[in-house]
Amino acid sequence: KKFSTGEIINLMSADAQQLMDLTANLNLLWSAPFQILVAVSLLWQELGPAVLAGVAVLVFV
Length: 61
Description:
By secondary structure, this protein is mainly α. It has one domain (5-60). It contains 2 helices and no strands. The longest helix is centred in the middle third of the chain and has 43 residues, at 5-47. The radius of gyration is 21 Å and the shape is rod-shaped. InterPro entries: ABC1_TM_dom, ABC1_TM_sf, ABC_transporter_C-like. This is ATP-binding cassette sub-family C member 13.
């Protein structure tokens, strides 16, 4: 089957968008747990054990 120029450009732009989304999500895969860990440790310094309530909500939701 032959594709028109417009169809090829449309397919290429869709693939490029999926690649951009993948790179952003892969970045979140490692950075989100790191950010949560840093935030919890900083909150622990300020609030002490009370931060465990927030961690429990985060885990259960």
